[in-house]
UniProtKB/TrEMBL annotation, chain A:
<comment type="similarity">
    <text>Belongs to the leucine-binding protein family.</text>
</comment>
<dbReference type="InterPro" id="IPR006311">
    <property type="entry name" value="TAT_signal"/>
</dbReference>
<feature type="domain" description="Leucine-binding protein">
    <location>
        <begin position="43"/>
        <end position="403"/>
    </location>
</feature>
<dbReference type="InterPro" id="IPR051010">
    <property type="entry name" value="BCAA_transport"/>
</dbReference>
<keyword id="KW-0813">Transport</keyword>
<dbReference type="InterPro" id="IPR028082">
    <property type="entry name" value="Peripla_BP_I"/>
</dbReference>
<dbReference type="Pfam" id="PF13458">
    <property type="entry name" value="Peripla_BP_6"/>
</dbReference>
<keyword id="KW-0732">Signal</keyword>
<keyword id="KW-0029">Amino-acid transport</keyword>
From TrEMBL, chain B:
<feature type="transmembrane region" description="Helical">
    <location>
        <begin position="12"/>
        <end position="31"/>
    </location>
</feature>
<keyword id="KW-1003">Cell membrane</keyword>
<feature type="transmembrane region" description="Helical">
    <location>
        <begin position="247"/>
        <end position="267"/>
    </location>
</feature>
<dbReference type="InterPro" id="IPR001851">
    <property type="entry name" value="ABC_transp_permease"/>
</dbReference>
<feature type="transmembrane region" description="Helical">
    <location>
        <begin position="201"/>
        <end position="220"/>
    </location>
</feature>
<dbReference type="InterPro" id="IPR043428">
    <property type="entry name" value="LivM-like"/>
</dbReference>
<keyword id="KW-0812">Transmembrane</keyword>
<feature type="transmembrane region" description="Helical">
    <location>
        <begin position="324"/>
        <end position="347"/>
    </location>
</feature>
<feature type="region of interest" description="Disordered">
    <location>
        <begin position="385"/>
        <end position="405"/>
    </location>
</feature>
Length: 449, 405
């Protein structure tokens, strides 16, 4: 910056111009907005904040596809998808409250910091009234906190940690996806039937909020059926190579390996566990088994052959036969040429649920929308009858127990549904110890400024 | 026009920097709202705060790298220490940033003293590797071992049941400076189609950025700064003359660590959450890129580099298919799809590629960074003027470039 030969006259000119600009009398259009980013024009903007890079990128990109499809359906384009099967009939394909739906996207990079930066720019620059997305619970918890402070609604996407609607629950945040506790409660009876009550489990756990709570939940529910937990080892997210964590399993005396991993991490750890020959081993006179408590189609795809016979749980699967699922799979398949994943379904459902709540409330005001969602009972979005519980903003619905298919015919049916666990079996009290106990509270809803 | 011990030229320079900083909300908003180019506007509070914060980070890094030539790959560790300190002060005392920020500077300074004392026993590549090792160690500690202090991957945040002993009944529940809430805007004027946002948090960081810029200017011009430059030029010769260079390098290391801690503290002051990924080596690498991209050893370069990278990260990564369709809608379908297909590689999730290409271009053609680019353009205009005067452009003594500019 050495050669900036600025004359005194030039400097004074610039200064004067800047001063004049600052001092110009202006019309205060901001006035008194009732809530953050109140949509005043003919459009309303939603924010889709998903990982497009990082270990959960595959999930994020599928979420984005579903969100774009939901926007089309809300605006009356396409075949309407699950709007036709949804039990609430207030959405008529004219956008939300007559405003055309637009959207902005952002990349969370599967990092809390980047996700918050991206969400902030959506709120401050693009004026979104709702943010949907967040693969990875760490990200979801961080963005949910931000939305609470800023006074907009957060419709969580793929987040499975108990904390999202437990310890870290927020009045402006809502989750449709199931959680780790539900996975444990649904899996335990199936594991008991398949592998018996005398088993020794070794846990490898992704080292963040989701991994911690899932490990805790699975440990609790498997110990309740008589299993013993040998060890629990934390692994960093996005580690890539898990061989150094898998080698010790061989000599630990364990006969079940529980992989509390997700996305690219799970693909790597499962593949390496199989390469180490774990599944061909006999320990304590029993066949060695692997369990992946949280499954997704995209992971099953990535893991290929190795997934055969491995148990896990899911929020939803495209092979279900209800009307909502069929309608959604049809319109998703026609647009993208592939069946949707369960992360896609949850994001689609969340976008529709938000639009529906706004319409029923007659306003975009966050507190009114939250009130419309609380205690809302609905059907026709693919999961059967569902309740949005008012106490913790968690959806309660059936949980699927899945197994890697022995003879898949295409790359999309690598998982088969073993059991549909009824909602009663996975329901818990809002002040459950794993969900922050009696101390956890939603706080007050925030409309922002 | 002498002021605060600065020469005439530097005073002018400082005043320009101050004016640019204060007018940032206007300068970064060149396109009217609703126009197709509005995507490129960057004048929203979060990004402006980031410009100022990473500007501070890069200014500090430049004191070490630009002056002494010691390339540290571990400065993100100090950023993290600063952030964690400030969030802990929120948790223990209250949301006023006045407690956390000075402590952030002190703690990161102490931490830098420790790391610097060990790392500076070596120079060159060994020094870089040592700092990298320390930073990765801190990152892994923050990520898993020290989870009770750092809350691991989830990030440290304030919960309703935290102590917050100083919290008053009517106090704001987000970071503030004696009641001035950081995330609030004090003025949101609109002129015709343009709308501007004047944010408390941005001006708070901007004022601090100006102060630390002034301090760095003084360091550059001081005998101490001259000594640091001597270390960069020829440390062996310095040793032969009987001068022990290590206290000087250590001082520079600690000062730049304190700058990084301040930047980290400010990040937490704008957004009350501290994540471990702030300490990852990619964050350390980013500040190296910023400094080199802008021009290492120059006063203004690191700030430009910081702005450049943050702009790409936040603006280019958000251009999606919908936006692209909006731009190319006037073209025939086949051509539109082709252009969107090509653009795919450069925007949205592929913004890293665009940044990488530009970085390569800058390093190959402008080794002095963006500042050199500016100087060359300025030089072009000057040459035109002088050739008109009839002098012989080939025969005159070349000006020796000042290393600090």
């Amino acid at each position: 910056m050495s050669k900036t030969n600025i004359t005194r006259r030039g400097l004074m000119k610039t200064g004067a111009a800047t001063g004049a600009g600052l001092a110009l009398p202006t019309i205060f259009t901001s006035g008194a907005a009732a809530f953050t980013n109140e949509p005043t024009g003919s459009t309303v903007t939603l924010g889709f904040n998903v990982p497009q890079t990082g270990p959960y990128a595959d999930e994020g990109i599928d979420e984005l596809r579903a969100q774009q499809l939901a926007v089309e359906h809300l605006n009356g384009e396409g075949d309407g998808g699950m709007l036709n099967t949804f039990s609430s009939k207030v959405l008529d394909g004219t956008g939300i409250l007559g405003k055309k739906v637009e959207y902005v996207t952002g990349d969370t990079q599967t990092k809390s910091d980047a996700a918050r930066a991206s969400a902030k720019s959506m709120i401050e620059k693009d004026g979104v009234v709702m943010i949907n997305g967040g693969s990875s619970s760490g990200v979801a918890v961080a963005v949910q906190g931000l939305c609470q402070e800023a006074g907009i609604i957060f419709m969580a996407g793929l987040t499975h940690s108990n904390d999202t609607t437990g310890k870290d629950r927020k009045a402006n945040g809502f989750r449709h996806f199931f959680n780790a506790y539900m996975s444990g409660a649904a899996l335990a009876p199936v594991l008991k039937n398949a592998y018996g009550t005398d088993r020794r489990a070794y846990h490898l756990t992704a080292d963040y909020t989701w991994g911690w709570t899932q490990q805790e939940s699975i440990q609790a529910s498997t110990e309740a059926i008589g299993w013993e937990t040998v060890n629990n080892v934390m692994t960093p997210v996005g580690a890539g190579d898990f061989s150094s964590y898998i080698a010790p399993v061989l000599n630990s005396g364990a006969d079940v390996l529980v992989l509390n991993h997700y996305g690219g991490d799970m693909i790597n750890s499962l593949t390496q566990a199989v390469q180490f020959g774990l599944r061909d081993k006999q320990v304590n006179g029993k066949q060695f088994e692997i369990v992946v408590p949280l499954y997704s189609e995209l992971m099953a795809n990535g893991a290929g052959e190795n997934i055969k016979g491995v148990y896990g749980s899911m929020n939803w699967n495209w092979q279900l036969q209800d009307e909502g699922t069929k309608a959604f799979v049809k319109s998703f398949g026609e647009k993208y040429g592939r069946p949707p994943s369960n992360s896609a379904q949850t994001c689609y459902a969340q976008t529709i649920l938000y639009a529906d709540a706004v319409t029923r409330a007659g306003s975009f005001e966050p507190c009114a929308v939250a009130a419309a969602l609380e205690g809302f009972e609905f059907d026709g979005l693919g999961n059967g009858p569902t309740l949005y519980r008012a106490e913790d903003h968690q959806c309660f619905k059936d949980v699927l127990v899945m197994k890697g298919a022995e003879n898949p015919t295409t790359e999309y049916d690598t998982l088969e549904i073993v059991e549909i666990t009824p909602v009663d079996q996975v329901t818990y009290a809002p002040d459950h110890a794993m969900f922050g106990g009696a101390e956890a509270s939603l706080g007050a809803c925030n409309n922002g400024a | 026009m002498k002021f605060l011990g600065l020469s005439r030229k530097d005073t002018r320079f400082l005043i320009i920097v101050i004016l640019l900083t204060l007018a940032t909300p206007i300068l970064l908003q060149p396109f009217p709202e609703g126009s197709g180019l509005a995507t490129f506007n960057a004048g929203y509070p979060d990004l402006m705060q980031r410009f100022a914060i990473f500007g501070i980070f890069a200014i500090g890094f430049n004191i070490l790298f630009g002056l002494t030539g010691y390339l540290s790959f571990g400065h993100a560790a100090f950023l993290g220490v600063g952030s964690y300190t400030v969030v802990w002060m929120y948790k223990l005392l209250d949301y006023n940033v006045i407690w956390g920020l000075p402590l952030a500077v002190i703690f990161s300074g102490l931490f830098a003293l420790l790391i610097g004392y060990v790392s500076l026993r070596r120079s060159g590549i060994y020094f870089s590797i040592l700092t990298l090792a320390f930073a990765q160690m801190s990152y892994n500690l923050a990520y898993s071992v020290l989870t009770p202090i750092t809350n691991g991957e989830t990030g440290l945040q304030v919960y309703g049941n935290d102590a917050q002993v100083l919290l008053g009944a009517n106090e704001p529940t987000s970071p503030h400076f004696f009641g001035i809430v950081m995330r609030e805007n004090f003025w949101e004027p609109t002129f015709g189609g343009w709308s501007f946002t004047f944010n408390n948090g941005y001006y708070f960081t901007a004022v601090i950025a100006i102060i630390v810029f002034y301090i760095s200017l003084r360091i550059f011009r001081s005998p101490f700064g001259l000594m640091l430059r001597a270390i960069k030029t020829n440390q062996t010769r310095l040793n032969y003359t009987g001068i022990n260079a290590r206290p000087y390098t250590l001082a520079a290391f600690v000062i730049s660590g304190m700058y990084a801690g301040l930047a980290g503290g400010l990040m937490a002051a704008m957004d009350p959450l501290a994540g471990a990924e702030r300490m990852q080596w990619t964050a350390s690498g980013e500040v190296v890129l910023m400094t080199i991209l802008g021009g290492a050893g120059t006063l203004m370069g690191p700030i430009l580099g910081a702005g450049f990278i943050k702009y790409f990260e936040n603006i280019f990564s958000k251009i999606n298919d919908q936006v692209l369709h909006g731009w190319f809608a006037f073209l025939p379908d086949g051509l539109e799809d082709f252009l969107i297909g090509v653009s795919h590689f450069f925007v949205g999730k592929s913004w890293h590629l665009t940044l990488g290409l530009l970085f390569m271009l800058v390093v190959i053609f402008l080794p002095g960074g963006l500042v050199e680019g500016g100087q060359r353009i300025a030089g072009l205009f000057r040459k035109k003027k002088t050739t008109g005067g009839g002098g012989d452009p080939e025969h005159h003594p070349k000006e020796t470039p000042h290393v600090a500019e």
